Amino acid sequence: MASILLGEDGPDTVVGTTTAPLPSGGEATGCAVPPSGASRAFDVIEVVDGDTIVLDDRSEVRMVGIQAPKLPLGRRNFPEWPLAKEARDAAVDFSSRREVVLWSGGSDEDRHGRRLAHTYVRDGQGGTIWFQGEMLRRGLARVYTFPDNRACVQDLLAREAAAREEGLGMWGLDTYRIITANELDRLNSREGSYELIEGRVREAKLINGRVYLNFGTDYREDFTVTISPRDMKLFRDAGVDPTDYEGRIVRARGWVRLFNGPSIDATHPEQIEVIR
């Protein structure tokens, strides 16, 4: 299968709660309805893709907390991701020409000038559809967080897990499946792509303020998760000591880079789920 290459939502420094292990298919509903601080209502005049819409004030909204498969949208040499059209079609199905209200649980604007928000679509019957939750429920998006946007993560992960357990959408394709940490050939071919990687942390080392979570015996070749001294503050604030991951089976998500083997930089604790 083709690699999912780095797109416009690639690594970016743009930053609460630590993520406890969630049972597969678990359900959480705290963010399923608009919080009291939600915005006034806007009309959706365009659906750009599975995680981006345009409102009647001409502002563009990026659905914080998720990443749907990407369309080229005029970008040169940008391959269309599998299920990108299906994701956009689904978003059109439940949100186009409807009213939405927005709520920001963190940074409210990205480097492209787009609004960052949890988005709630009025269903015409007095209720709302949580855009992020609906895309995850259909298996047409993955959880995707930033250090300054971490609200609702447990709810998001629960919806993702339920869709994955049923093999819906993205989770029925080899392209998007969880990679095990010892699949080095696959990982080495995924440089610049967003992946979910699972395995046992063989060793957790703190060196000069930086944490290295080594998943194999050879750090020069095997998969590693790194946490910089700057990002360690978020882990400490959340009461998480990354060295405690040693011996645990975890699932890390992030952008794969190749440096002494494949690795992911974890900038906040929500990127690492403890499986057992």
Offer a few descriptive terms.
276 residues; alpha+beta; five-stranded mixed β-barrel; five-stranded mixed β-sheet; 5 helices; 17 strands; 28% strand; disordered N terminus
In short:
With 276 residues, the chain is an alpha+beta fold.
What does this structure look like?
- With 276 residues, this protein is α+β, with helices and mostly antiparallel strands.
- The protein has five helices and 17 strands.
- Strands 1-2-3-6-5 form a five-stranded mixed barrel. Strands 11-12-13-16-15 form a five-stranded mixed sheet. A four-stranded mixed sheet has the order 9-10-14-17, with no helix packed on it.
- A hairpin with a 2-residue loop joins strand 11 (203-207) and strand 12.
- The longest helix is centred in the middle third of the chain and has 14 residues, at 153-166.
Discrete helix count:
5
Strand arrangement in the largest pleated sheet: 1-2-3-6-5
Number of strands: 17
Query: What are the secondary-structure elements, in order, as H or E?
Result: EEEEHEEEHEHEHEEEEHEEEE
Low-confidence stretches: 1-8, 12-28
The overall pLDDT, averaged over residues, is 90
